[in-house]
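Notebook entry, structure prediction.
Reason for the run: the old model in the group folder had no record of what sequence produced it. Starting over properly, with the input documented here first.
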Amino acid sequence: MTGIDFSVYLKPTLLMDYDHESIQTLAGHFGLVRDGEPKSQARRIFNHVRDEIKYNFYPPDLPALEMFRASDTLARREGFCIPKAILLASMARLAGIPAGLGFATIRNHRLPDYVKELMGTDLIRLHGFAMLYLDGKWVKVTPAFDSKMCRDSGLAVVDFDGSEDAMFPARDLKGRPHIDYVHDKEIPDRCFADVHPEKLWHSLLAAHAGQGIDLGDDEGR
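New structure, fully documented this time:
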């Protein structure tokens, strides 16, 4: 694939701060190096972020930068879909794998009734996932739901083989409807190299209020 400036998908940013000591230490523990085998490194990173960073649907009561920044998510050991995706993308960049963020609208058929009442819908707009460039293509991967949560809730665990998209399955372990990906023209089909934290937070609030989403014009394909 030509015409992509991969340098913007490899550098540290305000949110993807893989130059932070804590992320560097974790990378050393996993042996992540820029000349390593990308697929195996991507799988190790994915599995760690999926399972060692507990999923929490509710955003923490913190400033936007601390809410989304990779090193802060690593320190809290929990996060919702977007912070977990940012951490995954950050560690992938550290390993020399071009990485960014993707967004989608999903319908969660298993969303608890009280959450649906609070939100007025079972649509989750601005669901975030990571995008990794492997084997000459962009691969979508979502590390949001940790394995323990899935086991406790009867949900299928998202697995990643290092090659193909790893997204939420349409049905749970009993065959009941779970996640549908919904086309939403407001969310561009692109890989974002970076998004400003305040812009991301305001877009998330607007999304859940049913208002227009504006992620800005940050670099990306």
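Summary: The chain is about 35% helix and 15% strand.
The old model has been moved to the deprecated folder.
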